[in-house]
Amino acid sequence: xxxxxxxxxxxxxxxxxxxxxxxxxxxxxxxxxxxxxxxxxxxxxxxxxxxxxxxxxxxxxxxxxxxxxxxxxxxxxxxxxxxxxxxxxxxxxxxxxxxxxxxxxxxxxxxxxxxxxxxxxxxxxxxxxxxxxxxxxxxxxxxxxxxxxxxxxxxxxxxxxxxxxxxxxxxxxxxxxxxxxxxxxxxxxxxxxxxxxxxxxxxxxxxxxxxxxxxxxxxxxxxxxxxxxxxxxxxxxxxxxxxxxxxxxxxxxxxxxxxxxxxxxxxxxxxxxxxxxxxxxxxxxxxxxxxxxxxxxxxxxxxxxxxxxxxxxxxxxxxxxxxxxxxxxxxxxxxxxxxxxxxxxxxxxxxxxxxxxxxxxxxxxxxxxxxxxxxxxxxxxxxxxxxxxxxxxxxxxxxxxxxxxxxxxxxxxxxxxxxxxxxxxxxxxxxxxxxxxxxxxxxxxxxxxxxxxxxxxxxxxxxxxxxxxxxxxxxxxxxxxxxxxxxxxxxxxxxxxxxxx
Length: 501
Fold this sequence. Notes:
Largest sheet: 5 strands, mixed
Number of helices: 13
Strand order of the largest sheet: 6-8-9-11-10
């Protein structure tokens, strides 16, 4: 980089001050020291100049110091004529010493600057690697790479990543050609590389066996080998980060494909196993009523109609559970959340259950002053309905429903029964789709094995969870924990977003 006008003026001013101060001090001690002592004063001036001035200015200072010593202090004074050989040797020795000191100091300054530059580059590489390891997307990693190149080089830099076809249309043709050639050849090309040496740019590929793009560093110095190596190191780190993100993306796509296959299998299983039997019953009963209604008694007709209603309700339950499970198994399920009252949700669920189940077998305990909770009311109602229906199905005794606030930000719902209970080894597997517990196999109750899977999916979609525990008095205790947001501002933001849609 070329020094600014202020820096050049400062260099000349420092050079002048060193010569003036050195000559003034030599004149002050001239009567007390020999010519050798005066020569040492100018050696000190030359050494100070070598440390503070640029190389060219310090060399000029060395010649001017010899000239000042000759003009002011070597007889005959105030002329550049030298009478004695010893004086000529002293002046020559001063010039040689000054040039040697200047060369040594300049080399030391270069090595010191190189060491500092290498330290800064090593720190940048470390920081860049850490940033890439935390990158969450390919676009973020590409932005980090661009920022790293802009920070590392005072030269103008350009980056092109694969897939960004129109990113550099405004660049000169030679740079576009160089970037394309670098990506194609997968080698560093440009100044000092043995390929395209006539250019004053570097073109560095991002990657080795798998190329993700290329970087162009413009107007580089021919001897800046360390800078080219640093650019290659940045490209190598960028390629590693991009490769990790590409692999992660492929893994996510593979997992999504696996989930899609699982959902497809779930649909096929529901159709082939759980829907075919009730459909056959409905079809048989409806056909009997259609063709033999006049031959059937009133009791037989009522029995067939009841079976149609029961099987239709069963089909509706299976269909609803299957669809909800498919919806909740997506990566980002679309929940229609709003601020709801848990008392109202529980009340509506209990009202519907009482219409299906005769008798008064459900006890409920709902704490007072429960806060509003941001949930999908339809899904939470389905969760409670499934759990209560299961409890009533596998237990002949009372079923207890309780809702309380266990922590300031945690709502707990418990459904307790006095049924046969669930063995310890089955308390996780029962939440998987189409999995039945031993109590189901030993009972005459029918089920598709979807209800509990849907319940846990609903709870987790809301940021909570569903677990089952054994009761000391016998039976099971299904515990639903849902997070409660008690921030009024989030409520207002939600309402504002709905109004602005």
